[in-house]
Amino acid sequence: MDNAIRSEKRIWRKQAARAMKGMALLFLLSAVLYGCSKTGKGGAGTAAGQQAEVYGVSEDKKLIVYTSHKEEVYGPIIREFEERTGIWVEVRDGGSTELLEAIAGEAGQQTCDIMFGGGVESYDAYREYFEPYRCKLIDKLDDRYLSPDDRWTAFTELPIVFIYNNKLVSGETAPHSWKDFLDDEWRGKIAFAAPGKSGTSYTALATMILVLDMDERELMEDFVYALDGNVSAGSGEVVDEVSTGIRLVGITLEETAKKRIAKGADISMIYPEEGTSTVPDGCALVKGAPHEDNAKLFIDFTVSDDVQNLIMDQFCRRTVRKDLQMKTAGEDMKIMDFDLKWASAHQDEILELWSELIR
Fold first, then answer.
1. Which of 38, 80, 180, 271 could make an SS bond with 175 (beta carbons 3.0 to 4.6 A apart)?
2. Are 61 and 88 in contact (CB under 8 A)?
3. Helix, strand, coil percent content, the chain, rounded in steps of 5
4. Phi/psi at 249 (nearest 5 deg)?
5. Helix or strand run (H / E) with residue 318
6. Which residues have CB under 8 Å from 27's CB, separation 6+?
7. What is the pLDDT of residue 101?
8. Bridge partner list, 267
9. d(Cα 150, Cα 156) in Å, to the nearest integer?
10. Helix residue ranges, H only, the chain
11. pLDDT, tens digit, for every residue of 217-243?
């Protein structure tokens, strides 16, 4: 970062620290200290862009990231990236599907450089909007998680798990099988996010279809019937609903469940007995990205030693690096052979059928 910019930022921080009175100044200080702006789902962020204008940041020092990660995940990574590179990062967050649709809608007039987060089967479904890029550490990535045409780079491995409320459900009676969720016993008691908004839920739905030997439409009809019209706002809300007893059981990510259990949520986690998918989430270079070189630097950074160790140590996630020691384990986890190509090719029709049935 230019010395002049660093100097101006230090002066501003000192002045703000002395004058800080109320939430407005707290927010402004956070924007400068962290460099990245968390914005709502309705539009691209402006706070970081405004700060960049104030300090005269040139276009070659900017990066715009669309992310479906929670701030607790993307925040530390982006802040460290900014510190190391001097690049100002602007963030727009939201559901993976809605952000991918936004990228598709901006085709030819892109303001976004990077899509960060969301299952890679969704990336494949939107592959025409991404530019191939082979990251510098590709030889160290697990071969199972490589894009055949370099349209995306895997970030972490994300197993799907079942959860249940410890006070209201016993470990013996809780669902252990994907098919258990179709039983009348659980009708109206299942927490599940809309797969049209949540990449996690789409992966779970595709996993269920692949695992169970049933007609696809019949299975989805039975599952929608089991939900009884109850659809959670997001994968995080699935855990909230189960831990508070609004719903008794749910389907979510291993990472999400482990984090909440560590914070005291009264829930337990089960690995599906038929097997579960471990589809990675990813990061991809948007075609026509206005800051392409910076985007490539960010992709390389997400699979670096420091970031991959961070996701294991602090985020309860599994690394996609084959040369790093796994620090999380699922002793009872059986991994199914998830057909990523099929899940990507059928995403539109599955989501259309879901929308038809849920109405």
1. 180
2. yes
3. 50, 15, 35
4. -140, 165
5. strand 318-319
6. none
7. 93
8. 165
9. 16
10. 3-19, 23-34, 47-54, 71-85, 96-105, 120-125, 199-211, 216-227, 235-244, 254-262, 292-302, 305-314, 340-345, 347-358
11. 999 999 999 999 999 988 789 999 999
